[in-house]
UniProtKB/TrEMBL annotation:
PAS domain ranges (all copies): 27-97, 159-232
EC number assigned by the record: 2.7.7.65
Superkingdom to which the source organism belongs: Bacteria
Sorted UniProt keywords: Nucleotidyltransferase, Transferase
CDD domains listed in its UniProt record: GGDEF (cd01949), PAS (cd00130)
Domain GGDEF: 321-454
Residues covered by the PAC domain: 100-151, 233-289
Official protein name in the record: Putative diguanylate cyclase YegE
Gene: yegE_3
Transferase as UniProt keyword: yes
Amino acid sequence: MRTLRTRITDRGSIWQILPKNQGDKLDYENLKRLCDEFPLGIILCDEQGRCLYSNQAYTNILGYAPGELLDLDWHTCLYSEDAVPLNAKWKQAISSRSSLQDDVRLIRADGTMIWTRLHAAMLDIADYPFASLLMVEDISERKALEKILRQVENALFEEKERAQVTLDSIGDAVLTTDLAGNITYLNREAERLTGWDRLKAMGKPLLRVFNIIDGGSRDTAPNPAQKAMQENQTVELAIGCILITQDGTEVEIEDSAAPIHNRDQQVSGAVIVFHDVTKSAAMMEKTNRLAWYDHLTGLPNMALFTELLSQSIGMAYRHNKRVAILFLDMDDFKKINDSFGHLTGDDLLKSVADRVTKCIRVTDIVCRRSGDEFLILLGEIELPEDATLVARQILSAIAVPQRVNDNDITLAASIGISVYPDDGLDATTLMTCADRYMYLAKQSGPNQFYYSGPPHTGKVKP
């Protein structure tokens, strides 16, 4: 009897390995041809994993010539990272005579790597002179496609996460519905305003979560999402609409709804963007204040002062009155900052703003121009002397000693006065004159004012 070693090197060994049964109707030549023509790789191995037979598909998968794989341990073709885990599974399958399926990487004859799906059946060695039958499928293209799909999924996930973070960070509430009008998403602000947790709200009818009524009639307001989808355009909620939150609180809101389209440009849902009207009004007021008022003293800034000055000049022209501008600059204020620090300096500037404001009429305006400079607008005065009287009062008020942050401090200032129409007919000319006169006042020493009309300069005693 020929040995196993002889048989595995014989050409056409498959029918020598398989036991022949004279009653079998299948011709062994046909069996070998079927195996060789089968699209999946087929291997027969002994208990040590040596290849007793490989079909043409398997040699093509690995890029070997027919017969080159005979008597070689098929495990040597495994990619190193896959060898250890698969060998452990292989030994377990051999021991229990169970089947095995796994995705592994194999190294081809040219050194390239391919992904394969391995199906192995462990056979009883008492019945056959071989221990296992392997079917190998090249799944490299499938793995490449899976990799692309994972990359796409990761990109979509990251894009969704970015969108989620963005929507959660904006000040407006955002919710979306499907075509049936059921909730599909709420951002964080929508959760806060409605009182609904986004997970609990999912799938709920819109008007159960977004319960809105008309503020005047108290009737249920029209469904904005439904209207946007029906009209296929952005729609706005009626003014005075009230949202009833989950705990019954009423919040006046403004909103708009727009249809959501799928890739075929068909309406697939709606998005509603809304916000608390009171919060919006407060934000507008805050923004307006930052635009028109000084952040330290709360006084009007130059933008507002210039606007009010132009209006005051117009009123004075119509009523045949005068307007005065007092340009006030603190004397040697840099020494105050250097000696006591900027925090104390800021407190002193707020004190100056308060003292100056108390010296003028309610209709007059005090502006912090910049740093330690202030502008005072006296509207509709009769005589220039009215302005000089106010200047004396201001300098006297500023010169009163004060205690700030445990420091006794006495301040002084210089004031230049320009009067409409004597010194100019427009805001720019008047402020330029007042600025120049202020420097003339400084030349005479601290705590003085200057006016270009009849002499009104002179030291003001505290």
